[in-house]
Amino acid sequence: MSVKFEKETVRESAIPGGRKHEIAHEIGERLTGGDTVTGYLAAYLEQLQKNPLRTKMLTSGSLSALQEVLASWIAHDRSKHGHYLSARVPKMALYGAFISAPLGHVLIAILQKVFKGRTSLKAKILQILVSNLIVSPIQNTVYLVSMAIIAGARTFHQVRATVRAGFMPVMKVSWITSPLALAFAQQFLPEHTWVPFFNIVAFVIGTYINAHTKKKRLAALRKKHYGDGRSNSGRTDEYSRRDY
Questions:
Q1: Which label site among 19, 83, 96, 174 has the fewest CB atoms less than 10 Å from its CB?
Q2: What letter would DSSP give residue 165?
């Protein structure tokens, strides 16, 4: 009896947590690739190699739409129908898929081509400088122009006012986060994984900026229409002209 009990104990303790441990391990492999080639990340990277632009467009479009919904939820910015799925969501998806993704695809490809094979510290620092002084200003300018049009700007003066008002604040955020993200990618990530990594970084930063902007706009509208009081519904139908 004692021998049988010891064998059963050994058999049960071979895999701590039993079936729960196996399930957790399987989920981890699916998400990261693990020891298999069927992981979600591995499958995504494979598509990124086979169809780079299409994969980037689908990724950027999905993340841009999700970013708008998440930012609206954080800022409690509901549409006139009382939910967070406003008309901006499909517009943001179109921006991400047809403007942001192709632009980023071209700019990052040029940046990687220029510095291909250059691994010295001087080359890495120069790459960060080029990214922050050339690539980021182009991307941020296009972003601000697109956001102004999505928000309702229809004249050149409205678009220019948006870019002039938002350019330096957005660039300051880029100058803080971009060098850290690029230095991390240079040190720890292979080049074919840079795109999903930068997509995640951009998603987090973009959600923060979008939510912060929505909160400021809602506060300004409440102050304008209700004094220091708060709106009962917290809903707004359109963006204030001050955003232009």
A1: 19
A2: H
Global pTM value = 0.72
The DSSP symbol for 183 reads H
- CB within 8 Å of 133: residues ≥ 6 apart: none
Query: What are the CA-CA distances from residue 49 to residues 13, 85, 113 (Å)?
Result: 42, 33, 16
Q: What are phi and psi of 235, to 5 degrees?
A: -100, 150
16 CB neighbour count, 10 Å cutoff: 8
- Amino acid type, 111: L
Q: How far is residue 185 from each of residues 39, 40, 125, 179, measured CA to CA in Å?
A: 21, 20, 13, 10
**pLDDT string in tens for the chain (244-residue length):** 444 444 444 444 444 555 555 665 565 555 444 544 457 888 888 898 899 999 999 999 999 999 999 999 999 888 888 888 889 999 999 999 999 999 999 998 899 899 988 889 899 899 989 999 999 999 999 999 998 899 888 999 999 998 998 899 999 998 999 889 988 988 898 877 887 888 899 899 889 888 888 888 888 888 877 764 444 444 444 444 444 3
Q: What own/partner pairs with CB < 8 Å and gap ≥ 24 does 190-196 have? A: 191/112, 192/45, 192/48, 192/49, 193/45, 194/108, 194/112, 195/48, 195/52, 195/56, 195/59, 195/104, 195/108, 196/41, 196/44, 196/45, 196/48, 196/59
CA–CA separation, 150 and 154 (whole Å) = 9
Nearest residue to 147 (alpha-carbon basis) of 99, 106, 80:
99
